[in-house]
Each structure stands twice: as structure tokens, then as C-alpha cells.
Design a protein that fits this description.
Blueprint lengths: L3 E7 L3 H12 L6 E8 L5 H6 L6 E5 L4 H11 L4 E4 L5 E2 L3 H9 L7 E10 L2 E2 L14 H6 L9 E3 H7 L10 H10 L5 E12 L5 H4 L4 H12 L6 H24 L3 H14 L8
Parallel strand pairs: 1-2, 1-4, 2-3, 6-9
Antiparallel strand pairs: 4-8, 5-9, 6-7, 6-8
Helix pairs in contact: 7-9, 9-10, 10-11
């Protein structure tokens, strides 16, 4: 049985999927299985996958979205550790080796991510200071923005069993939602080396195809506020960030003439305005 299960969800990414697969097969650490979940692709992805016959497991499903695809990969996997790779990204050869080395001395409730290299149209772009990655406990920062990339994370199956899998009802920000559930209660390990290459600019990336992603982040924050065991200071920070995001979305809706939707987000913000633990 492999120590690590690597899961690549893909949908109409034939042009870049091969690069992602080869980056996994080139890892210096070899005790892994590779599972590719084809989420109903219609671009001849199957023909590409056949080129790697015997080197990976392919699972097919109708198009249900990235969360469903990742969760299906988890159900098919056998490893104690789970690692995810978006099909438009790639790993450097030492990625799995560095993370599994940390796991040897860590708790069974293990989560680890690495630093990244960002490329847009093949050119490296610098990360802003607010994007800087870290380890430890950083729930407040995780509320502001998504600080863990699915392509960089490695998580123990036991931790996923404890916090739950990707929320299939979220069209976007499903990773943000999972990181909130993890960082609210668990320490995160961090490898400061950039071991993941993230390629921006792909036309079917969620950031390009799903408008107003903060709508889904607001839903994720409401979910975490439903946890009675959430620390009081974390709860206060979550309410504050929910109000801020509601105001951002409401302003955007108003600019686009969506008056009713703008007022709904303003009303939601008001309902939390004086709350410590949720709507009054």
C-alpha cells in the first residue's frame, strides 16, 4: 500500500495535463499512487491519459465540479497521506520527499504546504507581501485570503476524516472553505522552498470563469461560525471578515445594477454587525 496518494482532478485540460502528470512521475520520492479523475472532459483527455497506461489510475465521472472530482479521488485512494495537484500546475522533483520527511516526526493529524513559483504566460511574477506563505496557526490570515494552494498541500487521511472533505455545494472557494476548517483547529506545517509551479492565465480557471468568488467565501465563513468550539477571538475575526466581504460584494453588485442582491448582502452584514457568535 502506498504512503501517498496523489490526486489530479481535470476537466478539459488536455493541453496542460501531461505536464502535471509528468511532474508527479518525476518525483524523487516514489512510494505513491497517482489517481487522475476526469470530470467529464470533452477534449480528448482520454487519449492523452492512455499514453500513461500502467503508471496511474484513471477514474471517470460526469461533470460535477472540482470538489466532487477530488472527493472521488479520495474515495479511490489508499495512501495514509493525500496530495492534490491541479491539472494546470506542476511539481518540482523534491516536493513529495520534503513533505513526507516532515510527516515522519509529526502528528497523525498532519497538514503541510510549500512555497510556490507563480508564472503568467510563462513569465515569473512576484508575490505580494499579503500572499506570503507561513506555517503554524494563521486562521486570521486564512480568513482574508486563500493562503494554501491545493497543489502545494499534503494532508493526512486521518485529518481529512476529522474535518471533512471538499464541499461539493461550493462552485468556487472550496479550498478556502477547507483551509478554514483546518486552520481553525490545527497547526499547519510549512516547507519554505518553492516546490510548486502555478501557471496562471488558463482560460478555464475558476478565477476566470466564476464571478464574485467572495460570495462563496462568505458562505464558508458562515459555516465556520456554526462550529460551537471555535475560539472566541477567532469568532470575532470571522464575523469582522464576513462583514467586510459582504460590503465588498454589495458594492460590486450595486455598480452592476443588481440592487436587490446588493441589499441582501448589506442586510447579512447588518445581521452580524453586533454579533459575537452569529446572527441575532
Amino acid at each position: 500500500m502506498p504512503l501517498v496518494s496523489v490526486i489530479i482532478p481535470t476537466y478539459n485540460r488536455r493541453s496542460v495535463l501531461g505536464r502535471a502528470i509528468r511532474s508527479v512521475l518525476s518525483q524523487t520520492f516514489t512510494d505513491f499512487e497517482l489517481i487522475v479523475v476526469d470530470d467529464g472532459s470533452q477534449d480528448c483527455t482520454f487519449e492523452l491519459l492512455s499514453e500513461f497506461d500502467g503508471k496511474l489510475t484513471v477514474v471517470f465521472q460526469e461533470n460535477h465540479g472540482v470538489s466532487s472530482a477530488r472527493n472521488l479521488g479520495i474515495r479511490y485512494s489508499r495512501g495514509e497521506l493525500l496530495a492534490f495537484l491541479d491539472s494546470d500546475d506542476e511539481w518540482l522533483p523534491e516536493k513529495l520527499a520534503c513533505q513526507t520527511a516532515l510527516f515522519d516526526s509529526a502528528s497523525h493529524l498532519f497538514v503541510c504546504h510549500t512555497d510556490e513559483i507563480w508564472l503568467i504566460e510563462g513569465k515569473r511574477v512576484p508575490q505580494k507581501s499579503y500572499h506570503v506563505k507561513q506555517g503554524g496557526r494563521f486562521f486570521e490570515r486564512a480568513l482574508e485570503r486563500c493562503l494554501i494552494s491545493p497543489s502545494s498541500v499534503m494532508v493526512s487521511r486521518s485529518l481529512m476524516d476529522k474535518v471533512g472533505q471538499f464541499d461539493e455545494e461550493l462552485t468556487a472557494a472550496e479550498d478556502y472553505d477547507l483551509w478554514l476548517r483546518i486552520t481553525a483547529f490545527h497547526e499547519v506545517h510549512f516547507v519554505p522552498e518553492p516546490l510548486v509551479v502555478k501557471h496562471g492565465g488558463c482560460e478555464n480557471q475558476l478565477s476566470q470563469t466564476v464571478p464574485v468568488i467572495d460570495r462563496f467565501r462568505i458562505r464558508a465563513i458562515e459555516k465556520i461560525l456554526g462550529f460551537s468550539e471555535l475560539r472566541k477571538d477567532y469568532r470575532v475575526a470571522a464575523v469582522r471578515e464576513l462583514i467586510r466581504k459582504c460590503e465588498i460584494v454589495a458594492t460590486g453588485c450595486a455598480k452592476r445594477g443588481k440592487t436587490k442582491e446588493a441589499e441582501e448582502y448589506r442586510a447579512l452584514a447588518r445581521s452580524y454587525q453586533h454579533a459575537e457568535a452569529g446572527p441575532q
